[in-house]
Design goal:
- This protein has a domain of about 130 residues: Double Stranded RNA Binding Domain (2-Layer Sandwich).
- The protein is about 35% helix and about 25% strand.
- It is built from six helices and six strands, in the order ααββαβββαβαα.
- The radius of gyration is 25 Å and the shape is flat.
Amino acid sequence: MFGRHHRSDLAARAPGLRPAAWALLAIIGLSTAGCGYNFRAPYDKSVQTVFVPMFKSQTFTRDVEKMLTEMIQKEIGRRTPYRIVDNLEDADTILSGVVNFADKNIVVESPFNLPRQLTRTVNVSVNWLHNPPTTSEKMRQPTIISETVNFVPEVGETSLTALNSVCQRLAAQVVDMMEQPWYTEEDLK
């Protein structure tokens, strides 16, 4: 039965169990700390500030570039050690981008040809350069990032909420791109 051994009996039988568990955890913690492992994202420590100008837009969707720029600035402030600056002269780096297209497509139609499920897609070209850019950065092509979100108008989701969700995901991807790579250019050669 379950009631045979009381909690006090078990504690009396193994009094060193709890300190031994703490000692084991301390050893594991110290051994991983000594290996240089870090739980935080690896960001470039030589960069302190980032200038994020308003993204350009090549699409007819209104204000998508404003929404995306604001979300990227907030995501950088929330997740990175970098500080957003308002002046180009004060920045260590410049994060610029172009919204290539913002599209809305019907995926599923009702029997009456009304849209049931739609997608919202935004494609962005992003460049993160030092201020002033290095010679290798001047020749580098921008990184192209695309994101798609499904939405269903029948349950109250709108094109604007889908666009907001797409921009939030793109902002997270851009900040992910700002993490320092675990390899160098020489490793790739």
